[in-house]
Amino acid sequence: MRLHSLRFAGIGPFREVQEINFDQLASSGLFLIDGPTGAGKTAVIDAIVFALYGDVSGRDAADSRLRSDFCAPGEPSFVECEFSVGDRRVSLRRTPKFERLKARGEGTTTASASQVLSEIDGKGVVRAELTQAAEIGAHISNLLGMSAQQFRQLVVLPQGEFAELLRMKPAERFSALGPLLGDEFFRRLQVDLEKAGSDARGERVAANEAVRGAGDALRGVLGDLDLDAVNAELAVVLDPTGSERGAAAQTILSWLTRRSEALAKELADRQASADTAREELARVDSHLAARTAVDQAQSARAGAIERLDLADQGVDSAQAREWISQLDQSRGSLKQWVLWEREYLARAAEQQQAEAEIQTLS
User: Fold this and answer.
1) CA 223 from centroid of its chain's CA atoms
2) Which residues, 6 or more positions from 229, have their beta carbon under 8 angstroms from its beta carbon?
3) C-alpha–C-alpha distance, residues 5 and 225, integer Å
4) In a domain? residue 181
């Protein structure tokens, strides 16, 4: 629904004719009806509701408040309103019941309320010409999808009645909102809620599985603690309805912190041992080159012995003494290299053990 214009006179504090162009007001977006108390803000709303439904905006307001107290008995009160719904444009004119001067004689008589509705479509074709209050009321309710009460509750919301809408029971609120929102809205809302509920249940199941997996991992990490104590705290954390989950989680976190600190220290010690072993290994590696020299010394010793065995083939004493001297030197070198080789083998075994322990910690 879109209001286009409102014209009225003899309504509320307005004795003279008042005209409001809503198309012009709404051209820049939202607009505000503002003014001090008694300026006639409610009278404008009353005029709109009266034009549409022949009623006033407040549920407890009397129809008599429409007629301006400033009007003389012979002056009329009327409301003319023009609005559209889609391509259907409607013009309404209503006059309230009021006291007027008698045509003959003295005194006043009650003038009956009157109403006229005219509707045209987007092509300018007249679709309705109505003058009966009941027909116009049914036509407007069908066109807007709201009764007068629903229009007051959902569109106008007079002072004090908004709180009543909030305090309605679900069935009452559904009755008020249903015709406005339509069955399709509630069908889509139900589908969306069911999907959201299903997604939430799936997420909860996945979260519980993740928590249980984390619990199993924690049992492995905290294996050096009292297993019963660990299981008791984990049971509290895994209980989705428990109120002490936060405290239990903090307890487990403190255990993990201490365990992490202990493992970090152990890892640092192992790394220090590994660094020392690597230094020793580097030093021992330098001895590997000496192994060749050991082999050469052994070969020289064997050659010296062989040459001694050939002494009867004319070897003189000077050459024999030279061979003996070489043999003694080779024997000394051989002894030293044998000691180095044993040290190398021991250090290599320590290095392998340290690297295996580091690999386990990592």
Assistant:
1) 37
2) none
3) 81
4) no
Q: How many other β-carbons are positioned within 10 Å of the β-carbon of residue 184?
A: 8
Q: Which domain holds residue 278?
A: 269-361
Residue 39 DSSP symbol: S
What's the angle, vertex CA 200, arms to CA 199 and CA 201, rounded to 5? Answer: 90
Q: What is the arithmetic mean of pLDDT over 4-31?
A: 90
235 and 321 part of one domain: no
346: helix, coil or strand? helix
SS3 (DSSP) at 122: coil
CA distance 81 to 117: 10
Q: Is 171 a domain residue?
A: no
Element (H, E) at 128: strand 126-130
Question: What is the rounded distance in angstroms from the CA atom of residue 120 to the CA atom of residue 151?
Answer: 23
Cα–Cα distance between 236 and 337 in angstroms, integer?
66
CA 20 vs CA 25, 34, 78, 93, 346: distances in Å = 9, 14, 14, 15, 105
- Is there a contact between 297 and 335 (Cβ–Cβ < 8 Å)? no
User: Is 240 exposed, middle or buried, given 0-12, 13-18 or 19+ CB atoms closer than 10 A?
Assistant: exposed
Distance, in Å, from the CA atom of 213 to the CA atom of 308, rounded to the nearest integer, reads 79
Q: Is 25 inside a domain boundary?
A: yes
Q: Are residues 226 and 101 in the same domain?
A: no
Report the distance separating Cα 101 and Cα 253, nearest Å.
90
Strands (E), the chain: 2-9, 18-21, 78-85, 88-95, 98-101, 108-111, 114-120, 126-130
pLDDT tens per residue across span 71-123:
888 788 999 999 999 888 999 999 998 888 887 878 788 888 899 999 988 77
Q: Give 8 or 146, the one with higher predicted confidence.
A: 8
Per DSSP, the three-state class of 130 is strand
- DSSP helix/strand/coil, 199: helix
Q: What is the pLDDT of residues 306-318, one digit of tens each?
A: 665 655 555 556 6
- For tokens 């003279």, what's the residue? 16
pTM over 0.70: no
More confident residue, 49 or 335: 49
